[in-house]
Amino acid sequence: MVKISPQKIVGSWDGCYVLDKHILSSECIGEDEFGHLKFDTTRTQMGELVFQIKYRDNYSVLGTIIDTIVDFIINVWKISIDLILPVPPSKQNRAIQPVEAIADGVGKKLGVEVSNSILMKVKDTSQLPLKNITDQSKREELLRDAFKVINGAVANKNVLVLDDLFDSGTTLRIITDVLKKNGKPNKVYVLACTITQR
Q1: Does 174 or 124 have the greater pLDDT score?
Q2: How far apart are CA 42 and CA 39, in angstroms?
Q3: Strands 147-149 and 119-121: what pairing?
Q4: 3-state SS string over 65-96?
Q5: Is residue 2 part of a domain?
Q6: What does the pLDDT look like over 1-54, one tens digit per residue?
Q7: How many domains does the chain have?
Q8: Residue 17 lies in domain
Q9: What pLDDT, in 10s, does the model give residues 157-178?
C-alpha cells in the first residue's frame, strides 16, 4: 500500500472519491533532440503507480494499487458493493487494459463480481479531442450516447464504477447518469485512483 490523500467529489453519484492527486508539480525543462518539450514531474505515490501502469505498461505495480484501493474501501469508505464496473477503455488495442486489471484484482480481494461487458462503450471516443476541450458542456456533447448498460444487469445492485484517472469527471458523470437512468441500480459509487489538476 501507499500513502494517499483521498478527496471526496460531489456529483450525481451516490458517493465518489479520488485516492490522491496525480501530479504534485511539473516544470518545463526544455526540449529533447526531437523538439518535444520535456518536464521534470513530481507525482504522488499513487500518481506514479498509475503513470507506470497506464503509460509504461509496468504491471509490477498492480498489486500495490489493488491493495491500496481495497484497504480504502474496507477501512475508510466502508461501502457495500455488489458489482464493480471498470470504465471502458478509450484505447482498445492494449493487450492488457489497466483499469480492467485493477478492477479484476479489487473484485477478487473483496469477493465482488466484476464485469467488463455490462457497461459498454458504443461510440469510439479515442479520436475525440477531449483533452483539449475545457468547456464542460462541449465535452458532454461529444460523449453523449457513448455508453450503454445491459438492461437489468445492475438493477437493485450497489455498483462501483472504477477508473484510473479522474480528469474533468465528464465521462464518469455520463456513465453514472446512464446507469441510473437505464440500469436502475440501488447505488452508484465512483472511485478513481488519481485526479488531474486543471
Answers
A1: 174
A2: 9
A3: antiparallel
A4: HHHHHHHHHHHHHCCCCCEEEECCCCCCCCCC
A5: no
A6: 899 999 999 999 999 999 999 999 888 888 888 888 888 889 999 999 999 998
A7: 1
A8: 7-195
A9: 999 999 999 988 888 999 999 9
Cell of 158: 450497489
CATH code of the domain covering residue 110: 3.40.50.2020
Q: What pTM did the predictor assign?
A: 0.88
DSSP string, the chain: ------EE--SSSSEEEEEEESEEEEEEEEE-TTS-EEEEEEE-HHHHHHHHHHHS--GGGHHHHHHHHHHHIIIII----SEEEEPPPS-TT-SS-HHHHHHHHHHHHHT-EE-SSSEEE-S--TTS-GGG---HHHHHHHHTT-EEE-TTSSTT-EEEEEEEEESSSHHHHHHHHHIIIII--SEEEEEEEEE---
In a domain, 1, yes or no: no
Pick the closest to residue 163 from 60, 19, 24 (CA basis): 19
Does residue 113 lie within any of the structural domains?
A: yes
Residue 160 lies in a domain: yes
